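Exercise 7. Given the encoded structure of a 607-residue chain, write a plausible sequence.
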């Protein structure tokens, strides 16, 4: 088993090796010791959500231990089908920049179309690779795909090479034992862990191969590839995801003459590229391009208060103002997709934000908060994303809880769900306000035992699903359910909603009836909106100081009285309000209270 050796000054993570040479497949941690080792091996690096050379632990490792490295991107429809059109645009620009950056180091990016496991297996035999570097994932489907890759490589004969699979990640914090990760973000912050430093740009080992590197597709070609692999029956479902719920609702109420959002203007995409704008997509409201372009946009974002005469920075400032639907929300809106694709790392974002904050304060960090709202927005978002990634990874590796937890990534955010049952109609359970998927812990198994496949989801902003700084509306949650049905369940469902969850499922059934077989409402709540307003939701629902104070008082009250409140809901079966349920609800309330306090601490205007 190879030992990765690095200079002791660099903060390298632990690498996990999965060796197909023995059965069952073992996994263990390889300690990274200092020293010099002569590179003599060949490796493949499978790019997925790490489309960068900056702060890339696997590249740095390969540069130290391998003579030859083959960078690879696979256009696998199982990954691409989850992306919106805008994300596909962003992906193409990022890959073009990645290939260009690799060529500057006398390397290249190999591009292939098909199933990743087949392509990687064939390339391992072609280049006689001894290692395959694969970034750790928390999404259930991605972890399944990586598992298939491992299984496929196990089937290689010893003559073909049997490479080791090197699982890696970019550690934001030096967390020794994931199982000891605190249950709440508040408790985690109390640990005061110091973020690790980003890695410098590594020199990429040259790939020794005569294979064709493959062309990058156009956007049109990519859409045709996805359409061909998905099948015509799913085409209409895919189109649903591109139409915002608010647009459909307005059309239904105003009864227009059948106008629809036009398809992508391919010329406009190319024009943005030639103009070298960091807002490379057709909509032009998210940052994209390559790593350097995104870092330049981040520098402009952080320095918003300083003003600028630079046209490119003025463009970022303009988009920032448009995206600031609530305090600090502009960062995730502008940079979230680039972070999702790994064009820059979370660690790099935090480092740049803190470095700039120190520049503003003569090298010091104030204990009373950040001096600029943009710095707080970027640093807090990076820390929060990392926390939920660790929490999700812990859930995938442990068997804690009542059900096996899976992770689905929606618009870059990590969503928890579970599936029980292997046959029968699909049923989706949606919880109420302040709850989570375990709200149905007394119902899931019973429904599944009646020959149903039961999905239960924890909605965005609730439970242990991610809580991004966005404007939460009923239409946002309805779109989440719509996309979950299309991407995860993959067939029409029986929808069950409790409390405000009933409101969400009713919206889904009303706007996208082809996705729903039936609707069951339990103590449903919510406003039907008989007269829909054409005003922006964000303008109607900005959080005032009084509302924020009221939320804090309510959360304090709930934390003190939640045990008695919950038991009153079960007057004849008080045992249902057990310690586990109470503790989970207290954890959720504590997390919400901490977030409200954080937003209050870093409240600054961007005007």
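Solution.
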């Amino acid at each position: 088993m190879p030992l990765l050796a690095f200079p002791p000054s660099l903060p390298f993570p632990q690498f996990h090796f999965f060796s197909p040479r023995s059965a069952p497949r073992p996994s263990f941690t390889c300690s990274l010791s200092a020293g010099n080792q002569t590179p003599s091996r060949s490796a493949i690096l499978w790019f997925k959500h790490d489309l960068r050379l900056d702060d890339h632990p696997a590249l740095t490792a390969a540069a130290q231990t391998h003579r030859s490295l083959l960078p690879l991107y696979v256009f696998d429809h199982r990954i691409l089908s989850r992306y919106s059109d805008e994300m596909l645009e962003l992906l193409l620009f990022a890959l073009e920049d990645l290939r260009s950056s690799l060529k500057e180091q006398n390397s290249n990016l190999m591009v292939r179309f098909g199933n990743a496991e087949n392509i990687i297996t064939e390339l391992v035999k072609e280049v006689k690779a001894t290692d395959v570097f694969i970034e750790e994932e928390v999404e259930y489907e991605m972890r399944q795909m990586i598992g298939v890759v491992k299984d496929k490589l196990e089937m290689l004969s010893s003559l073909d090479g049997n490479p080791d699979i090197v699982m890696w990640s970019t550690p934001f914090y030096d967390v020794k034992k994931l199982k000891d990760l605190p249950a709440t973000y508040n408790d985690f912050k109390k640990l005061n862990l110091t973020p690790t430093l980003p890695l410098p740009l590594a020199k990429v080992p040259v790939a020794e191969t005569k294979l064709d590197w493959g062309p990058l597709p156009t956007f049109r070609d990519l859409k045709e590839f996805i359409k061909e692999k998905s099948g015509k029956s799913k085409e209409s479902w895919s189109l649903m995801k591109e139409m915002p719920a608010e647009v459909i609702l307005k059309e239904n109420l105003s009864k227009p003459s059948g106008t629809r959002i036009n398809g992508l203007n391919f010329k406009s995409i190319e024009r943005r590229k030639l103009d070298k704008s960091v807002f490379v997509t057709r909509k032009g409201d998210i940052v994209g391009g390559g790593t350097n372009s995104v870092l330049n946009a981040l520098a402009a974002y952080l320095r918003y208060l300083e003003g600028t005469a630079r046209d490119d920075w003025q463009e970022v400032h303009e988009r920032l103002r448009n995206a600031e639907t609530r305090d600090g929300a502009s960062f995730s809106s502008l940079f979230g997709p680039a972070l999702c694709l790994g064009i820059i790392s979370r660690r790099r974002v935090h480092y740049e934000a803190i470095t700039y904050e120190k520049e503003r304060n003569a090298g010091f960090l104030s204990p009373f908060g950040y001096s600029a709202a943009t710095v707080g927005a970027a640093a807090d978002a990076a820390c929060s994303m990392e926390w939920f990634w660790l929490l999700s990874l812990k859930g995938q590796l442990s068997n804690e809880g009542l059900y096996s937890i899976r992770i689905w990534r929606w618009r870059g955010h990590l969503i928890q769900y579970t599936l029980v049952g292997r046959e029968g109609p699909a049923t989706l359970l949606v919880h109420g306000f302040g709850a989570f998927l375990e709200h149905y812990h007394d119902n899931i198994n019973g429904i599944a035992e009646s020959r149903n496949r039961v999905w239960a989801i924890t909605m965005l902003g609730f439970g242990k699903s991610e809580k991004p700084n966005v404007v939460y509306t009923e239409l946002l949650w309805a779109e989440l359910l719509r996309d979950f049905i299309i991407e995860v369940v993959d067939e029409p469902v029986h929808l069950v909603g409790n409390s405000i969850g009933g409101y969400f499922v009713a919206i889904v059934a009303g706007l996208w009836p082809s996705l729903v077989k039936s609707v069951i409402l339990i103590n449903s709540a919510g406003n039907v909106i008989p007269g829909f307003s054409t005003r922006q939701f964000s303008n109607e629902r900005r959080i005032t100081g009084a509302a924020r104070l009221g939320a804090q008082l309510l959360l304090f009250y709930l934390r003190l009285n939640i045990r008695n409140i919950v038991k009153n809901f079960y007057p004849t079966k008080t045992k249902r309000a057990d310690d586990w349920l109470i503790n989970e609800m207290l954890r959720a309330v504590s997390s919400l209270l901490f977030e409200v306090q954080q937003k209050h601490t870093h409240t600054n205007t961007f005007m």
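Remark. Residues 373-397 form the longest helix (25 residues). Students should compare their own answers with the one above.
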